[in-house]
Design brief:
Layout (H helix, E strand, L loop, with lengths): L1 H4 L14 E10 L6 E10 L7 E8 L4 E8 L3 E3 L5 E4 L2 E4 L2 E8 L2 E10 L25 E18 L2 E4 L4 E9 L5 E7 L8 E11 L2 E12 L2 E6 L5 E7 L3 E7 L3 E8 L3 E8 L2 E22 L2 E19 L1 H10 L1
Antiparallel strand pairs: 1-2, 1-12, 2-3, 3-4, 5-6, 6-7, 7-8, 8-9, 9-10, 10-11, 10-12, 13-14, 13-22, 14-15, 15-16, 17-18, 18-19, 19-21, 20-21, 21-22
Length: 331
């Protein structure tokens, strides 16, 4: 467990009892921001071995449209001491993947390589984006960020389109555990006016020893510094307003205030895990917009140090959102 916890990218399910899922999320946007594709390889271990499966999901952001391709669980293979998995003839590592899929409604083939990855820092006390919560074995769902921002080389053939991703930008994260939360909001973008800026932010209902709390984790990468706002850092979510297609969210800690205003774009359905299988449908947008403002607290109030819009953002709003809002308001 010690080595796995300090290596969030690796496959964690070798000795896990079902129900258990694990999935890696690769998102790519081309240089001209005309194409976006998401590829999600994963595995679900069911209590009934006959219902266990491995899978690859693909999102064509231009349409938008999503595809779910299932495989026998035996098609999933992984290395024990490093992140390297394969599903059928498709392979995935931290800085590259290769896919060759042909089904009735989907054809995708190609190899992509990623350079200058920016993984969430890992230390003994805070092994990744979950902080010390990563050491808690009974968490319902674990989360990892393998790269906040990186460049891409390579081409994908997606149905009738050849997409050149060279010079584009990518993002990689993952989840593993028993099931997704009861409710959550998630957003991610690394397409600001200047290069090297990235935001990932999520808030969810977290089960905790017979109770629950609204836990959040946010990373804002700017000028090579990662600003972290999270439940475990002592930050607070001071405002969360959710409309049909908008989210206004403010968090703050002792030094900074981070304000995010989101306008959601077109969405498509992905599959997500429950304890019974990959049978939950969730809406995801890959073309939302997040306006970000970062303030530094001063004696007389606050001063703004950054303002910008993140385009082509990934966004999810799922589950019992009224309950999540009420928990945030209750403090």
């Amino acid at each position: 467990m010690f080595q796995l916890t300090r290596n969030p990218a690796r496959y964690h399910g070798q000795k896990k009892k079902p129900p258990f899922f694990e999935g890696w999320y690769y998102r790519m946007v081309d240089k001209d921001c005309r194409e976006s594709v998401v590829v999600i390889p994963g595995i679900f271990k069911h209590k009934d071995p006959l219902k266990s499966t491995s899978f690859i999901q693909v999102v064509d952001g231009k349409n938008p449209e999503a595809y779910y391709l299932d495989f026998p669980v035996e098609a999933f293979r992984s290395k024990k001491r490093q992140f390297e998995i394969a599903i059928g003839g498709n392979s995935f590592i931290s800085n590259a993947f290769s896919v060759d899929l042909h089904r009735e409604n989907l054809k995708i083939k190609g190899n992509l390589h990623f350079k200058f990855l920016n993984p969430w820092p890992v230390s003994l006390l805070s092994p990744g984006i979950m902080g010390w919560y990563a050491w808690v074995p009974f968490m319902e769902c674990f989360h990892g960020v393998l790269s906040l921002d990186h460049s891409i080389e390579g081409t994908l053939l997606l149905n009738d389109r050849e997409i050149n991703f060279t010079g584009g930008k990518g993002y990689i994260e993952k989840d593993w555990g028993q099931a997704f939360p009861e409710a959550w909001i998630w957003q991610q973008t690394n397409h600001f006016e200047e290069d090297g800026i990235s935001l990932t932010a999520s808030i969810a209902i977290i089960p905790w020893i017979g109770k629950a709390f609204p836990g959040f984790i946010i990373g804002f990468l700017w000028e090579r510094e990662l600003y972290r706002f999270a439940t475990y850092t002592g930050a607070a979510s001071t405002l969360l307003e959710i409309g049909e297609k908008t989210v206004h969210w403010i968090v703050e800690d002792k030094k900074y205030i981070l304000e995010m205003n989101t306008e959601t774009g077109p969405s498509t359905y992905l599959r997500a895990p429950t304890p019974q299988g990959m049978d939950r449908q969730i809406l995801e947008s890959v073309d939302s917009v997040v306006e970000v403002r970062l303030f530094r607290k001063i004696k007389t109030g606050k001063t703004m140090v950054f303002q910008g819009k993140g385009l082509h953002a990934g966004f999810e709003k799922e589950g019992n959102i009224p309950k999540l809002l009420q928990m945030v308001k209750s403090g």
